[in-house]
């Protein structure tokens, strides 16, 4: 078994994973701000966190994963400027924040499910932890904070090594962070924002510092510490969080734990900080406001199975930028189709599918009584995943397994199921026909297509090529391409 190695953004080094608690892995992932639908770039962050969680399970660690839902406190700028994203959307829509949060949380969960992202142990909702946030703030206020008219601010000069995660000295951030009158340091941030006099927010709570709402950074410090205990093992997020959100969480954690500098990673609250790189469009970072809003549902509406997007994510290492294109998605879908053809062949050779062991597949279960040719393959798959989650490499090993011929079919399927438990493509539950998603604009149903194709087959058998061609043209007029002799065995596509 290869030792699990992960890239720690805090040390900027690949490190061997040593859990804080023997045999366990505790992971916190910054979740979505539920003011709008997530775009597929946001979902890359959760596919990555899921891949990490699945790899930890595969390595035999008992995983506790927390993903939060931010329903208050995230401003339109990650630092201190702008409005609360939730309040802003609620005002625009003339709806209650609670309704907005519910709607978009459910939409996010639908994407989570469609992408085979496993359910974490906890979905922690920020507004459920206000009491704990007030206690946390109170415990650090005297030594680390000061009050201004607009709120309670964290003085970043009171902790050692502020900003180390971002590799930026405090002053460097100055240009980017809007000045608030009276701040001691440019990078100081509000941990509690007071409701301005004369205003009423939809979400506000009483506190020692007046009515108001918690800061976004405070929320993640509190929920991660509360649910996982400091220090926990791994904190994840998108690479943008490396600049402001996570350095600020770290500063609060240091203050709360009374810990020293960041020479000791555990002082930051987590031992390892991991960040996925961006999904980008040719024009730049994907965002909700610019251009076509790339939601998972849009991909589905255009006829792409959501797992083609998961495949697309797995094909790139999580620390590399990934450029989205429709051609790239098409290629990922084709790759998934080929995988399913291989799985179908393997399935046809066995009576029953291997039963998933309780608690999911681990490398150890995968080994089972497997011998001979399959063991080196499992070892190479393990090595790839242990090498800072090298999923592109692991995928090629998975495909090698699919192509293997002279192996015991039961063992092959066992190895397949176990590897898929890490990749999360769910290939044993998927049928090839499931991948053929009807685009929203399609004017013909599958039953009508199958019916026309059956009639065409009959015509061809009777050598009535005029009818056969007429049926083909009829289908083409409705946007259905008939694919005679397609190597992937697809008879038609929309
Ligand atoms: N283009 C992207 N590619 C990969 N991850 C991303 C991308 N954009 C945001 N993320 C990550 O998605 C997660 C969810 O972010 P959040 O819900 O806070 O979205 P957001 O800040 O409103 O997104 P955006 O800035 O894109 O509108 C975070 O971990 C964030 O770092
Ligand atoms: Zn967070």
Unreliable runs: 170-175
**Can you list the ligands bound to this structure?**
adenosine-5'-triphosphate, zinc ion
Order of strands in the sheet with the most strands?
A: 5-4-3-10-11
Give the N-terminus to C-terminus distance in angstroms: 45 Å
Derived structural class: alpha/beta
Helix content: 40-55%
Q: Total helix count?
A: 15
CATH fold-type name of the largest domain = Rossmann fold
Walk me through what this model shows:
- With 494 residues, the protein is α/β, with parallel strands linked by helices.
- The strands form five sheets. A five-stranded parallel beta sheet has the order 5-4-3-10-11, sandwiched between helices. It has a four-stranded antiparallel beta sheet with strand order 6-7-8-9. Strands 13-12-14 form a three-stranded mixed beta sheet, with helices on one face.
- It folds into three domains: 272 residues, HUPs (Rossmann fold); 138 residues, Isoleucyl-tRNA Synthetase, Domain 1 (Orthogonal Bundle), CATH 1.10.730; 52 residues, no CATH class.
- β10, α6 and β11 form a beta-alpha-beta unit.
- α4 packs across α5 and α11 runs antiparallel to α12.
- Zinc ion binds next to loops.
